[in-house]
Amino acid sequence: MTDSTTGPDQFTGPTPDNALRDADGEARADGPMLAADGTPLKRSLNRALRAQKLRALGLIAPLLIFILVTFIAPIADMLFRSVENQIVSETLPRTVAALDDWDGEGVPGDAAFEALAYDLTIAAEEKNHTRLGSRLNYETTGISSLFRKSGRGVDDIGEVHADAFADLDPLWEEAETWLALMSSEDYIADEAVWRAAKDGTLPPAFELRDGVATALPRTADIFAEFARVIRIEDEDSPATEEPWNIVYRALWSDLRDNPDAAQAFAGGNADLVAAAAAAVPDFPDEDIRAAFLDIDEDWDDHDVWGTIEAFSSTYTSGYFLAAADFQLTPDGIERQPEDQQIYGLLFQRTLFMSLTIMVSCILLGYPIAFLLSNLPLRTSNVLLILVLLPFWTSLLVRTSAWKVLLQQQGVINDTLVWLGLVSDANRLELINNQTGTIIAMTHILLPFMILPLYSVMKTIPPYYVRAAKSLGATDWTAFWRVYFPQSVPGIGAGCILVFILSIGYYITPELVGGTTGTFISNRIAYHISSSLNWGLAAALGSILLAVVLLLYWVYDRIVGIDNVSLG
Amino acid sequence: MKLKTLMLLTGAAVAATPALAQEMADEMTLVSWGGAYQESQQKAYVEPYLEMHPGVTATWDSSSNEAVAKLRAMAEAGNVTWDLVDVVASDAIRLCDEGLAMEIDFDEMLEPAPDGTTASEDFGDLIVSDCFIPQIVYSTTFGYRTDMVGDTPPTEVCAVFDTETYPGKRSLEKRPINNMEWALLCDGVAKEDVYDVLETEEGQDRAFAKLDTIKDDVIWWSAGADTPQLLADGEVVMGSTYNGRLFSVIEEQDQPVAMLWDAQVFDLDGWIIPEGLPEDRLNRVLDFVRFATDTQRLADQAKYISYGPARMSSAPLVSTHAELGIEMAPHMPTDPANATNTFLYNYEWWADYRDDLDAKFQAWLAQ
């Protein structure tokens, strides 16, 4: 871009920029120059300039906002999705924390199972567990049903403890008991007001009693979650429902660890907790790991835990790795097994076929554009309509027409057989492969090559070629040395249009591409609309975008982006 | 609008929740597959429903093939404009897992059978997800050109893999589901062991090896209309597609095509209600669904398309085709004569293995 011919300094007439610079120079020489109204000229000019710039901005604002909202923002959102991975740490926060201590060998200890029981109970109540299951199933097959099953079974965990507490004192079955025990006085008062009002509003947000979190840490944690879920999901208060079984398990383990927990309470609460603390050592234990294995023995699988661990961070490189035929495993980054490597191949194929389509568009489009630009205007306008005609026909109709033409029992094969050029048994395979995609897409994209070429060729003065010939050049030399170089900007523009359009095409390759003629965009479409793996689709899309930008940069270095013209 | 707000406010003030429950929207947006299938729904229960409720309008959106992605995008944007969405069972399971579809209380929300059987018993095993109300049973099965198979028309599904006896191209769907099962069945695996075998690495290789034997002779389809077209053009000698499409090729277009019901794979299509609809729209949809999935309405649908009603109680009520006048029962995939050897799609299994096997399948295709 060094040879740029436009820019503020090239204008000889007065512009606000030049005047500003002049004013600057004057100021240095002999004090500030003043405008007619006495303000320094520089400031007054600045003001004028700013107003002008604002007006210009105002004029482009609708387009700018439109592009920001409909183009830049969605692209940024998509790029973000390719690394975003909050779902694991948000759905299983305790488990993720517990896995920090895991050495990655075998299956983690009981602490992780315990944490999983809490997380999964909450997730199942909020119906988040199946979402997480499908997310992790992209990485390890079987996690989807593992989570679905576990979500159904997890509410049995802690049942023995719930029964034991109920046997000890029926008060433990009462929601009111728990409310009095766990919540702050303020909350109890607010909740009573809310319940009396019955006005359909959300109940007040739950508040823990002071000191409970230290005396009974697990119980406080899970009960607060219980209250939150009841409030959001059922729009009700914890005073109306008996806590989940897992709350009893939490209380059981808290009291085992801290037999003096009653000290944190007063009055009836203290007696209740003290009695429970005294009884807890005789309560039946429940092997938490066995309980999970009972739901599904896959919890004994190292890969399941490894996957949770590997994808526990908020941001992940997992999608990009998958898009490059690698995978993130518990033991680090590995190459995808050979029978699942596909994206590298598809990227290569997309680039190769887009280039082929581009080249065939040049070969077919250049002579047409040349002819159009050299015919009398009346004839060329009629022919131009023929070029534009495909634009007015639906893409699907054109693609289906190619099917009818190219298939083995189609028009072209029938004609060839009739002419005796091919035998009936060896009809040509022209569709459902790369050939089909290249033919159909060259046809669809041809106008994008012809139109820029035509408009550039129209501007090439015919007397240059005549002059070359009068100086003794042959037809070919005159074309190649004089005409062709002047048409290069049109080729450049056509190539960029055709190449970039074809790299993102997916309908035509899907319909006529068979297995060898499909593009990377077909996989992106599959992951967007069918597998719902939007992260992977976003990663594939980001790579494609990066490749296009890189090619654009290379093009700029080799041909020069200034050397592109639409007319 | 103002009146509605006022009514809502008064309703809330006197805590008259039952009165509120009657509030119903006057518009519904129904999502379906377009084409003959949507037409059958329109005639069998949408038109009758609108006749009973003159103030109500129903708008169709033929986006079922991308319903999963669109519904997720709508939910993320916080603006779900659909009221009732027709999807296949596997998509319904995915939507349910993603929390995008509402859980259905079958006995509460749906009409019992005329003899009093509860809805959940009437649908029976076809309730494959908590969010999914089945409407029809369709099957993916093979059709073949009667003029291209010589004197020995194929009688079993393994003819697909027999390129000696039946030379020519075949069309199969461009996805692993169904193809992997058929490959194993024809490689000698017993029907009840198919999924156990397919779970193992060796079993998958075995299925791919079997598919390899016909890979060069296959045209892979991705739209349901492809196989009927390919059969009609004589491009393929046999191909898999939905039985309703084959019915229309054979009976309505009168092409030299016949059905090969052997090892047909049953699948389900039905409604889901998007999660989080406002109360008035939800009430309208529930009212409509209760009507549209009752015994008579499901049987009526079979007048227009050859898919079997999902309710057991509807089967005896299936009558003749509305235009052709032929008996529809023999064209139902569930008809005893057609269903001598059927295969049940294992939804739970495919929910787990779909992502993995699809990657392998696509890589295999691309090789």
Which assembly state applies to the chains in this document? heterodimer
**Share of residues in helices of chain A:** 55-70%
CATH architecture of the largest domain in chain B: 3-Layer(aba) Sandwich
Order of strands in the sheet with the most strands of chain A?
Answer: 1-2
Beta-strand segment tally of chain A: 2
The number of helical elements of chain A comes to 27
| Whole-number count of domains of chain B | 2
pLDDT averaged over residues of chain B: 90
Helices and strands of chain B, in order, run as HHEHEHEHHHEEHHHEHEHEHHEEH
Radius of gyration of chain B: 22 Å
Which regions of chain B are unreliable across 5 or more consecutive residues at pLDDT < 50? 1-21
What is the terminal separation of chain B in angstroms?
A: 60 Å
Query: How is the CATH topology of the largest domain in chain A named?
Result: MetI-like fold
Class of secondary structure makeup of chain A = mainly alpha
Strand content of chain A: under 5%
* Largest β sheet strand count, sense and barrel closure of chain A: 2 strands, antiparallel
Question: What is the β-strand count of chain B?
Answer: 10
